Task: structure prediction
Amino acid sequence: MNGNTNFRGIFAALVTAYTAEGKIDLIQLKRLVRMLIGQGIDGFYVTGSTAEVFLMDEAERFAVLDAVLEENNGEKAVLSHVGAISTDQAVRYAAYAQRAGADAVSAISPFYYHFSDEEIISYYRAIMEETALPMFVYNFPAFSGFSLSEEILARLKGCKNLRGVKFTSSDMFLLERIKTNNPELVVLNGYDEMLTAGLAMGADGGVGSTYNCMAPLIRRIYDCAAAGRFEEARACQQRANAIISCMCRHGVFASVKALLELQGLSFGGCRRPFAPLTDDARQELFAVYRRYMEQE
Ligand code: MN9
Result:
């Protein structure tokens, strides 16, 4: 462990780099980690949705985590996403993250089969009881089909390593209720386009895919909000959202990777069935990005 256990601030949900042959490119990934540290990121969220984790095999998952930990070298907090559809797999991934030296784990709820609340609670309990790392429950109803509630969270609080929630939902009322009623938990905002709103409602920071390619602007949003300067935070958010809106239209992860090209990194596209970006999309993204990031 790095000893980076504050977990507040802005965490890049790292994208995955591929070589021309479709293998994971750990050299480019490490370059991104180094670049983001230089741009003032507070930490990394590794092998999450943004990393296309469900299109990766187990060995790749572990190799990505190892590479990030190696490059990070204890400088920033590293949260390792260990979620899976199987409790046993998630426990195994969490055990690996602990051995490898991650600072915390996070897990999406098991999906696809519409597991009951009881089954989902037992999944989280198993991960927390069978590994020692702090846990961030990943609430992402739009993709997982499961929505965290205050009641379920209260039941998970019986586990001493529950540390917080990665909250990817636009239900700002629920975000506020969770933080206000559980001030000891760290709440990390998940939709980048709503970061200012999340921070205004009490979030301690954010995790985001778009942070990979616009960390300086996200840093300003966070710093302004932390200083209570919400007008300025909102102005930065409006610029970020002009870019995010274009990214959402063309596919967020492929767009992040294309925009990293502007910073000299070569990440390739996304794995199938994600579609490649068209040339028109790429040109539009570059133009919007240059227009709204140039003031940074
Ligand atoms: O980590 C990300 N969610 C996903 C959170 O990747 C599914 C967000 O950063 C979104 O990509 C972003 C765009 O909607 O807010």
About this structure: The first strand starts at residue 9 and ends at 13. The chain is about 50% helix and 15% strand. The chain has a mean pLDDT of 97.
